[in-house]
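Would you be willing to look carefully at the protein I have copied below?

:::
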Amino acid sequence: MSAAVPGAPAAPAAPPAAPALRCTGLVRSFGGVQALRGASFSVAAGQVCALIGPNGAGKSTAVAIMGGALRADQGQVELHDTEITGWPSNRIARAGLIRTYQLSRELGRLTVLENLMVVPYRQAGESLWNVFARPGLVRAEERRHLDRALELLETFGLIRLRDSYASELSGGQKRLLELARSVMAQPRMLILDEPMAGINPALIDKIGEHILALRDQGVTVLMVEHNLGVVERICDHVIVLAEGATLATGLMAELREQPAVVRAYLGGALSDSTSS
């Protein structure tokens, strides 16, 4: 390594990485009720970020806009510096942003394995021409998808349930299936809407470990979550919404010290978050 030259100007610092997701001035009304009032925030690439706030803060509306299920009245959404405002959800998914829902949306009449096998976009076997004229191509692709699906079922602890109907799974198993199915889509970013809601406490730590493993593999994660103890343990950054606007951002420990944030949670939830 060469030594620095005395008196030479310092090398410029590397510019910060662009956010994986940036929302600017989001506004959305439902009749006379304004769910979002100019909310702005960003999610750094390669992090697990939490979007928290009291009931009615606008979290679900923001997630629906980011995922393409709703259109904003005003504002912009950018994914890796590409504006995706107003894009339909299927186009957003193909761009690499995959979202889950508060209630798991498994394909109940398909097996656990089939739930993963239907995920890849534009499979060769969907074309009748390929089925009859290029069967080798179809078989090779199906083999690749099968190998990937089995690998994910092993990773998420669902391999023994591969032939079970998805409707037969427990609530926690459905959450794991939803995560595995999301990863099957090869996302660059995941938005998880209350991934810990309604599941056995024994599975909460396991799902948290999976989320951290995804982050370590380069997937950016934004999660809406009411379990502030989980937020404290696994999130690199926290965004607080209140009354449709961004109230504060930072680490959970820092936010617990901000009076405005504590008031938004009516005092108790933040101070007790480490025991959640």
User: Anything to note?
Assistant: Confidence is low (pLDDT under 50) at residues 1-16, 271-276. DSSP finds eleven helices and ten strands in the chain.
